[in-house]
Amino acid sequence: MKRKEIITLFWVSVAVSMFLFFAFTENKNLENFLYTLLISFIYSFVLGGANGLLNTFLNKKIPWAEATTKRAFISIASIFITNFILVYFCNYINFVVIQKGATTEAFFSGKYNFLNWFTINVALLISAFLHAKGFMEELKKVSRKEVVEQKLIAKSANAQFESLKNQLDPHFLFNSLNVLSSLIDENPQQAQKFTASMSKIYRYVLEQKDKEAVTVEDELEFAKTYCDLLKTRFEDSVDFIFDVKKEDFRKYVVPLSLQLLLENCIKHNFATSSRPLTVRIFSDGDALCIENNLQVREQIKESSGIGLSNIVQRYSLLTKRNVFIEKSEDYFKVKLPVLATKPNVISTEPDGQYKAYKKAQKRVKEIKGFYTNLISYCIVCSFLVFINLVTQSRNHWFWFPVLGWGIGVASHAFKVFGIGEAWQEKKIREIMNKQK
């Protein structure tokens, strides 16, 4: 139990004891006040504390968001059983042990049944409030989580858009077409190969642009094709070395990340026959490295770093591992995390999200309505029982509203958590699956 909850129970005990002492105690002396305070502490800490611990335990074992129906049934059953036992325990301590107004035989003979029942209703009210509070807190957490997921979806969509803009680099297309134009006259056969390689490049871009992760093997095949185009364009001014372990081939990386990094190597470094640019793609532990010797090209406009930030953003959506960038006087290196399994990503389909949101919203309203009904039932019925026992102790008319409304609450519970539209839909799906 948290410190804040203990302090709350303490002040509740003090407030209740002072109310009972000044309103119902005839002999107002220190001894009676201490007795009242002790009894109030017993009821508050035993009933309130136990129900709070029960709610906390159920929140950890069976969260509302993961198993709403199961949690509701277990909560209802557990609070009835727990409060029944706790109320009898507290009343026994109060009337038999502390006040000594009854013997053990008299207490369990039925003399205190109405008082026990009334106290159980009050305890159920407290417990229902705690569980409803826990449900609302869980609902807030889920809502916050959905907001975070929506932000991630928006961030992912923006990252994919930026990625596409970088992947279809107009400068690369312009330079490639110039090379192709010169090859058509000089070497038609090489021009055909160059055209086929360009076709593979853009086919891969279109195929992979909507994916979150691809195998290292597919990304390497694409990178080699891309390097062939660059090799045709720059001839012996650039050199590409691939040294990736075969055990990494079935692992995953962000698609088109190698293309962005290779394009950066060409864009930001000069390459000549006398001073060739060497680019290495190799394995380094659980990372895929792209390293080039540093031959910085003088640029009028400073680099915006969109390519690297794009890769970092897309990796941040898939893993907690970081993209590392190393720069020295001699080389520039980027380490891409290699993922052992294909990551689970959030669906970015707006229609599916909207339907799921509406369905969840409807479900929350149903559960909220049931708990409002349950709390109202506990409050009103407890008040009716109190009025009946105080005014007419022999004529017990409170049974009629208690039983009548109780049947309504029970049917409401079955509709929301068991025998309702969700149950019917589940059965329909089961029958359809069997017929298939």
What do you see in this structure?
With 436 residues, this protein is an alpha+beta fold. The protein folds into 2 domains: 1-144, no CATH class; 168-337, 2-Layer Sandwich (Heat Shock Protein 90), CATH 3.30.565.10. Helix content is 70%, strand content 8%. The chain contains 13 helices and 7 strands. Helix 1 (3-24) runs antiparallel to helix 2, helix 7 (188-208) packs antiparallel against helix 8 and helix 8 (216-234) packs parallel to helix 9.
Secondary-structure blueprint:
Layout: H1 3-24, H2 30-61, H3 68-98, H4 104-111, H5 113-167, H6 170-186, H7 188-208, E1 214-215, H8 216-234, E2 238-243, E3 252-253, H9 257-268, E4 277-284, E5 287-293, H10 306-316, E6 324-327, E7 331-337, H11 350-391, H12 399-417, H13 421-435
Parallel strand pairs: 2-4
Antiparallel strand pairs: 1-3, 4-5, 5-7, 6-7
Helix pairs in contact: 1-2, 2-3, 2-5, 3-5, 5-10, 5-11, 6-7, 7-8, 8-9, 11-12
